[in-house]
Amino acid sequence: MSVISQGFQGRGRRDDRLPPGQYETHDFPVLSAGPTPYISVDEWQFTIDTEDGARHTWSWQDLMALPKSTPHVDIHCVTRWSKFDTDWEGVSLDVLLEDVESAAEYALVSSYGGYTTNLPLEDLLDGKAWIAYAFDGRPLAPEHGGPARLLVPHLYFWKSAKWVRGIRLLDQDEPGFWETAGYHNYGDPWHEQRYWGD
Ligand SMILES: Nc1nc2c(c(=O)[nH]1)N[C@H]1C(S)=C(S)[C@@H](COP(=O)(O)O)O[C@H]1N2
Ligand SMILES: [Mo]
């Protein structure tokens, strides 16, 4: 089988779309490490801080004024469920990072409520990640991360921080909440990178 078919969404046999050790579910399970924070769109803010200390801030209105994307993707949770053909609406990180000057290689994403997760900056670029605010044509429910969450479907779903509030761009990698607790630092579902040492 060619490598190309793996990431190819919406085509091919379903087996080809299921990463190793995963099963398909039609539910949308809720996985949260703590209570759901309720953030109104009036108080919601999203910031990107660069390694030089520059801060870029977007209000909800700012976010809504940006060009939107409608990613159609499969998602994979490290607890082994995968969900095919999920439909989202959001703003690509390419758009948000367009005017951000940075030579950083790493990103540390943080959420309202205190959750954090880390990934290489390049995994947020080139159409691979979004700030998503709608699911299935409706505003994103609070338990799924509303008003807005990170969506980075090519990595295990713990990287898709719910209730996202900001991203710090860093010269040096800094592990987030689950990464510190023993989850894999990168988390590629196709290589079954679940825990340290995988
Ligand atoms: N802020 C925050 N984001 C989070 C989590 C969390 O506990 N807090 N859990 C992660 C995990 S482990 C998964 S599998 C997905 C679950 O998203 P869902 O509840 O919408 O299915 O959110 C991820 N993002
Ligand atoms: Mo998860």
TrEMBL record:
Domain Oxidoreductase molybdopterin-binding per the UniProt entry, residue ranges: 34-178
Region described as Disordered: spans on this chain: 1-25
InterPro entries: OxRdtase_Mopterin-bd_dom, OxRdtase_Mopterin-bd_sf
CDD domains xref list: arch_bact_SO_family_Moco
SUPFAM superfamilies in the cross-refs: Oxidoreductase molybdopterin-binding domain
Name recorded for this polypeptide: DMSO/TMAO reductase YedYZ molybdopterin-dependent catalytic subunit
Source species: Nonomuraea soli
